[in-house]
Protein 1
Amino acid sequence: MDHTHHSSDPAVADLRGGFTSTRFVLVEPSHPGNVGAAARALKTMGFSRLVLVSPRVPHVQSDPEAIAMASGADDVLASAHIVPTLADALSGVHWSIALTARQREYGPPQWTPRAAASLARDEALHGEIALVFGNERTGLSNEDVERCSALAHIPANPAYSSLNLAQAVQVLAYELRMIYLTSGAKANAPANPAPQAAAPAEPSGPRAASDEIESMFSHLERALVALEFLDPANPKKLMSRLRRLFARSGLEREEVNIVRGIAKHILLKTGRKDDGA
């Protein structure tokens, strides 16, 4: 039994914060058994927040196969939050990482699960984060991938790299657990560790949430079209590359507002209507 929840140790308090601020998102899962097995994978690693985007079986939490595969993680399965879109699943999230089955030429930076877990630990200090998993057959769409801050890819056996959805969830949940536990141990380290290179400066303001960032991209795209810098008939990869650029920066809310202010003035100067959406 895990007794850490009853401890007053500040390191454990930080660890608990990481576990509760992390949500696992399954986009359009097809098989109830995989949903139940994913719930089990989360609970074995100390996580409990499961979000399902438009599952093929609408009431999957009560499906007998899902309950059987949850194997005691019935509470995680029953409390799974069902939403219609990935945008809804990422509501309130300021950083997310998508698991992809293949390397992608475009999109956010791509990491191994261990490196992704290290990034997630740092981002969890600033608020809600999410790990996003695609459909068993088709994975994640390009649009879904670009809505996320970063990508993770499990470097499986190239001759047979077919990981079951719940197994992929287990790998990421394990790596996250280990990095959260290690972070707790570091908090109890000696007071005078060996000198290290200066850490990068922490953001000075609150991070922007996913929906704020998406609104910024819509606003910026309209402005670039108005400038005729972006040709809607031949967009190439401009917005994908801009998303990649901004994904590396860890956008603060104030920075999003600055970009939107620039877009607003571009639209005003070019005589275009700015609906401010």
Protein 2
Amino acid sequence: MGKNILLLFLLLMFSCQKQNINQTESKTDSTKNSVENAHNTKKSLDYVGTYKGILPCADCEGLDTEIVINENETYRIKTRYQGKGNKNFIKKGNFTWNKNGNTIILSNVENEPKYYLVGKNTLTQLDLSGQKITGSLANDYILAKQPTDTSLETSIDNNATVDLNNRIQTTTVIKKVNPAVGKFALAETKWKLLSLYNTKVLTQGKKENFLKINSKDDRFTAFAGCNTIAGNYIMPSSNTIDFSDVIMTRMVCTNMTLEDKFGAMLVQVKRYKINNELLTFFGEGKKVVAQFQAIK
């Protein structure tokens, strides 16, 4: 009798252990399949393309947004603040995938959203920590993929129609939008140099010292007494600007102090402000590094 009880006990233990092993293997396989499916997101979805929408904006009517995702893992974002002029702000860089393979992470982005969830023909902006935004405005953070048409140039247009929740851009136009509209917009206006580091600058000779920003090729030209100054610029966000690759011709002049200071000033600029016909450049903090006046 005792032997039968012992045999029954051993059989029950063996059955329980086998069941636990099967359950563990089942959970492992389920987790493995879940991860593999997530990693397949970037392979199974045709994510390459252009996405457009109007995202919520804390200090404007809405943020017109166009994101181009390329197959070589580079991106380009073009944004415009509704109600604050028609200037387009452009940022470029590379992106990586999260470990689940369903979210892209933009490089060269600080203190701004950089996580975007990839869906079927959609790109959803996530919060700063990479979590999905919830609440009544959740759907407003969805960008819609645009039809592919390489024969036309797409851009944000004030008269464009919207579809997804009355917010997704759908119009394709041939004419490129001029991001400098207005009497004294930053771009396409010729600005006369008034002061440099709070020191008044006087014009010497017949040619005025000036700065002109060209929105069509993202470059600028300038003059500060002798040589021609030129370079590139980007506008990461509203009222911010970053000059780079500043170069100048090297004609030998009697006094080149002003243009040397001018070139050094450009790479220090962080923000700008336009008040009527006066343009002010700021460096770190609220330090004024230069002021200009629009040439009418």
Protein 3
Amino acid sequence: MGIVVYNTLSRKKEPFNPVTPGKVGIYLCGPTVYKPSHVGHAVGPIIFDAIKRYLVFRGYEVNWVVNITDVDDKLIIEAEKQGVSTFELAERITADYLSAMSKLRIDTIDLMPKASEHIGEIVGIIKQLEAKDIAYASGGDVYFDVSKHSDYGKLSNRRLEDQEGQRDLQSAEKRNPGDFALWKAAKDDEPDEVKFDSPWGKGRPGWHIECSAMSQQYLGDTFDIHGGGLDLIFPHHENEIAQSEAVTGKPFANYWMHNGLTKINTKKISKSDADPEMRAALSKMTLHNLLDEYPGELIRFFILSTQYRRPIEYSEAEIESKRKGLATFYRLFERIERICEASAYVAADSHPDANADRLGAGANVQDGSLASASQDAFASFARAMDDDFNTAGAIAALFDYAGAVNRFIEQEKLDTSDSDSAKNDALVATTYFVSLGRLIGLFLDPPAPQTTSDDGLTDDIMQILIDVRQRVRKNKDFETADLIRDRLTEAEITLEDRPDGTIWRKG
């Protein structure tokens, strides 16, 4: 069975068949760069980075485009507030966004075109629509006449009559309340840098036409996947479809994939973004602040742990829960490095057979049960990803596999055993485990070592507690020993008793 994708356009899962066999074109709506990116801006890129990695693994040549909207009313307003030029602000916010993408290891984007660099293509499309009498000029603006496009509303399932009375869509200069701007006439008080020449006078493009022009420029009239958040279905994506298909006479995108929205889940703030506490919470959720507090891999793991079409509940408690889950994998990697004196990360980088698809053949593991677990893990992982790129299901397969490897270590008593064969099996299985995670962008780099304090005071205190616990256990005072462990657990500190001593870790 091949890959199936849930298509918002048809509202059902469909077999994935690219326009050109073996090649995939993806367009994801990127940020409007007027304010620092927040956690919601990371959701789409993380999801589609994982999707691209998996599609490449499955043998496809993928061209992924993410646009930058650097011409927009919000930019003009914000730049004026800050007393800077529009493009100075756009450049600064874009740099902030790209820095965050790098820390999240989103490095598979092929092109990031800017709207300001495609004015010629935008004007060209509008002229074609005008020539077909689907677009019309009015007072220096140019509008798309939605009544001329019979399929308008097919993505959002809205009818034209549903738009009557919508305050933000009404204008005395429009033929219909639902008509939307393709070109906006420049205002006298706007900066010259956002006043572009056009047949209708100086002005700037509307938001929707920018994406149509850039996707057509780099992916063609019809491409495979168009992505974005659920909030973009209407009006943005609906309008993209209308203007693109009206000008080309061809289907715009064959598959529409929309990720769920990010919800703030906390009792400390209200639901209104006008509330000061809510604004404070949102400011903490900027990617810059989040990445100062949490590792990029943790944020990535947090987002991929939810199937992409479902809403993501953001809270500190949820992040901490995912930190504990991720620590399960890190502990396995540490354990293997201690037992085998070799890093699974390094082995995955250098081992000639460290390809995830080899898991289906047993990963060169000699032990029958572990080889079977490797096969099962790969099958479960691939089955989840083939079913609408279900990264949550893929991660569940990783947890099952980690459990199998840990059970093998216990059964073979590898903490004390000298069996080179069994140790090699454990290392090989964990190496393939890393390779499997890398198919969705996990385990690309070893986790940064956790620091405690600059003077080592925390290490010293923990060693004292460990020594005291060992003393009371030796005296058979197990109640006190358990109390020490339980209180440390409450503080999210884990003790691990090993043959060569007890170690501790945070989380």
